[in-house]
From TrEMBL:
Organism phylogeny: Bacteria, Pseudomonadati, Thermodesulfobacteriota, Desulfovibrionia, Desulfovibrionales
Keywords carried by this UniProt record: Kinase, Transferase
Any single Pfam family the record assigns to this protein: PfkB
CDD domains: RfaE_like (cd01172)
Protein known as: Putative ADP-heptose synthase
InterPro entries: Carboh/pur_kinase_PfkB_CS, PfkB_dom, RfaE_dom_I, Ribokinase-like
Organism encoding this protein: Megalodesulfovibrio gigas (strain ATCC 19364 / DSM 1382 / NCIMB 9332 / VKM B-1759)
Record bears the keyword Kinase: yes
GO MF annotation terms: heptose 7-phosphate kinase activity; heptose-1-phosphate adenylyltransferase activity; phosphotransferase activity, alcohol group as acceptor
Length: 347
């Protein structure tokens, strides 16, 4: 990487320090059982894992907030939990991470927990305990009370939708109205879920992965440049968003700055151990950079570097400013290429 570009990107990392981002959505617990497999069970043809360690981490919207905090930002988390032992574990982790938060307790649902069984650095099994029906009207009222207080203090909002009921039609209708009522409406970034795609009207940027983008666009295939371009256009028509960032796994990212203005950002990851939480890292760094005044394309490049860092770790990891600067210095510069820049696609 050229020295000038390295210095420019590193300076952008500094702009994230102390910036505020509001995170709203589905928080959960990520539960890890880590050990080794040495034999097959005599009871059934399944491996037997001896557990060596066990730990809990914030997941979902909580992991987005943790990523923002690790990068030197100031997240505020608004979410919902159950009224159970895992809700206490969630509160304990939020306090431990020193994340400012309002967590609304709901008696009609459990606190979401995802248990991952990992042996020899490979995920063998995931067990989910959750309830994905939309939160009730009373909970939406409480969410809106918190938003009415916190929204005026934030220029960027992340909606972290894991399909567990916080982000729903009733909530989004009131949320959009509240945003429009602000003297300066915030930039709203959405980490989406398929069933809610039609509801993300007029978001600043939506960040689906390949599978989510394919399903949302109705495309049968999503492997070629043409597929991605046509799929992105379909999402623009459906959501009327300002921008779209499709994460393509080992193939990097496709940034739709407009329906007819698309660039490809190749991955910089050297190794991939675990993609858990990579989307959380992408939207966290994207939001922080935008809140710090960085342009959208540069913010996406920074998010791409951060994703390259976290997929090299096992479990839902977070990237620090020093790790991001190191990645910028040592990893290859992504060759950002225009995929579409001349003849605008008709919307």
């Amino acid at each position: 990487m050229t020295g000038a570009l390295q210095r420019r990107l590193s300076a952008m990392v500094g702009k994230m320090a102390g910036t505020r981002v509001l995170v709203v959505g589905d928080s959960m617990l990520d539960h890890y059982l880590v050990g080794s497999v040495n034999r097959i069970s005599p009871e059934a043809p399944v491996p037997v894992m001896r557990v060596a360690s066990e730990h809990l981490m914030l997941g979902g919207a909580g992991n987005v907030a943790t990523n923002i905090l690790r990068m030197g930002g100031r997240p505020y988390l608004i979410s919902v939990s159950g009224e159970d032992d895992n809700a206490q574990n969630l509160d304990m982790l939020i306090r431990h991470e020193q994340v400012e938060a309002t967590i609304i307790r709901s008696e009609d649902r459990p606190t979401t927990i995802k248990t991952r069984v990992i042996a020899q650095n490979q995920q063998m099994l995931r067990i989910d305990k959750e309830h994905d029906a939309a939160v009730d009207a009373t909970v939406v009222d409480l969410l809106m009370e918190s938003l009415e207080e916190m929204l005026p203090q934030h220029e960027v909002v992340v909606l972290s939708d894991y399909g567990k009921g916080v982000i729903n039609a009733r909530f989004l209708e009131r949320f959009r109205a509240l945003c429009k009522a602000q003297p300066t409406p915030p930039k709203v970034l959405v980490d989406p879920k398929i069933k809610n795609f039609p509801l993300y009207q007029h978001a600043y940027c939506i960040t689906p992965n390949t599978s989510e983008a394919r399903q949302a666009s109705g495309m049968l295939e999503f492997s070629s440049r043409h597929d991605i371009l046509m799929g992105g256009l379909a999402i623009f028509k459906k959501c009327k968003c300002e921008h779209l960032l499709i994460t393509l796994g080992p193939n990097g990212m496709a940034l739709f700055e407009a329906p007819g203005q698309v660039v490809h950002i190749p991955t910089v990851a050297k190794r991939v151990y675990d993609v858990t939480g990579a989307g959380d890292t992408v939207i966290a760094v994207l939001a922080l950079a935008l809140a710090g005044g960085v342009g959208l394309r540069d913010a996406a490049v920074l998010a791409n570097y951060a994703a390259g860092v976290v997929v090299g770790e096992v479990g839902a990891a977070a990237c620090s400013p020093d790790e991001l600067r190191k990645a910028i210095a040592l990893l290859p510069e992504p060759e950002v290429q225009p995929w579409l820049s001349e003849e605008p696609l008709r919307t």
